[in-house]
Inverse folding.
């Protein structure tokens, strides 16, 4: 009889808690680009597949016809509705966008809020999900979805730094190409901040 595979949840939760218990300076933020004092609460779900030795992160690509951020890679997520907290909003959005059942998400915790240049205060919600879920993208919100290795995303060597002139100033941003998908902007910055909390060394204890 084959023994059941170990879950990454508990060791990942320990690494997450240890990383968030220490002060980390100079986390990325675009707050200085935000105009008119706008600060709209939002949340995203960083869903990590429960695959020992090779956990993956679920990402989406927005439809190219969308008004805001067309074609960009993102985590499932959106605005926090009245009466919701970040966890509830992230789980709801993942269910709406990908039909990812919220009951399948084993929560790890919330990470550092990211202030976008367009005035959103984004709370990343980290959770573990079973591999092989039958996800069904909502075509109004998701053009495609894919998985990228957590180890790849957390490795600073995977990313290139680029610069663009935006809103009257030079803005640096991170970028990574993975299987034809371009991961950059807010999504890349959230990942970079998470990598300051969960290091590759910490991830090795999970694998």
């Amino acid at each position: 009889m084959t023994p059941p595979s170990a879950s990454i949840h508990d060791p990942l939760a320990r690494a997450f808690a240890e990383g968030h218990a220490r002060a980390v300076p100079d986390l990325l933020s675009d707050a200085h680009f935000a105009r008119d004092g706008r600060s709209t609460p939002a949340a995203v779900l960083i869903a990590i597949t429960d695959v020992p030795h090779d956990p993956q992160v679920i990402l989406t690509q927005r439809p190219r016809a969308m008004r805001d951020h067309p074609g960009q890679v993102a985590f499932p997520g959106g605005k926090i509705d009245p009466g919701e907290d970040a966890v509830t909003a992230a789980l709801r959005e993942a269910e709406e966008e990908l039909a990812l059942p919220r009951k399948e998400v084993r929560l790890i915790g919330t990470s550092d809020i990211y202030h976008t240049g367009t005035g959103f205060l984004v709370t990343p919600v980290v959770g573990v999900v079973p591999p092989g879920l039958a996800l069904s993208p909502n075509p109004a919100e998701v053009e495609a979805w894919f998985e990228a290795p957590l180890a790849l995303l957390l490795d600073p060597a995977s990313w290139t730094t680029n610069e663009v002139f935006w809103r009257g100033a030079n803005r640096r941003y991170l970028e990574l190409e993975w299987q034809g998908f371009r991961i950059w902007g807010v999504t890349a910055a959230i990942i970079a901040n998470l990598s300051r909390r969960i290091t590759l060394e910490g991830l090795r204890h999970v694998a």
The first strand starts at residue 40 and ends at 49.
